[in-house]
Amino acid sequence: MGVSFSALWPEAEVAVVNDLEEAMASGDYQTSVLLADQLVARSFAAAAGLLGAMTEAPRDPALVAMLLGLDGRRYLEFRGTVRDTRSGREVDPPRALSAYAFAIEVRLARLRVGA
């Protein structure tokens, strides 16, 4: 049995995590990066929601990253990987793993401020 980080996410997102981990295991690094982006976006949206009604919540993901205490360089690296992936550039295993690691960092930061 392999290691899974799906226990970190709510039930509604476990399928995305499982798909990401399957993509990583099968060498589909482009898909894994795009799924990591989904997880990050959902965690950012949930964290922004803690600040008030959706009309009052910050819409800038960089601001949400800062409020969660995430490293700005890691966020920029992640965004660059996602941008490169969407533009069709090849993604190597270290970059794909780094993208997933960032999604895990975001989820842990989100858990620290309240589930």
What are the defining features of this structure?
single chain, about 120 residues, about 0% strand
Report the oligomer. single chain
How many domain modules?
Answer: 1
Number of helices: 5
Average pLDDT rating: 90
Distance between the termini: 28 Å
Structure classification? mainly alpha
The proportion of residues forming helix, as a percent range, comes to 55-70%
Topology, number of strands = 0
> Which word captures the global form?
globular
As a whole number of angstroms, the C-alpha radius of gyration is: 14 Å
| Helix-strand sequence | HHHHH
State the major sheet: none
Spans of 5+ residues with little confidence (pLDDT < 50)?
A: none
Give the amount of beta strand, in percent: under 5%
Structure, described:
The protein is an all-alpha fold and 115 residues long. The protein has one domain (11-112). 69% of the residues lie in helices and 0% in strands. It has five helices and no strands. The longest helix is centred in the middle third of the chain and has 21 residues, at 29-49. The two termini are 28 Å apart.
Q: Mind sketching the topology for me?
A:
Elements: H1 11-26, H2 29-49, H3 61-67, H4 72-86, H5 93-112
Helix pairs in contact: 1-2, 2-4, 2-5, 4-5
Quick structural summary:
Helices cover 69% and strands 0% of the residues. It has 115 residues and is mainly α.
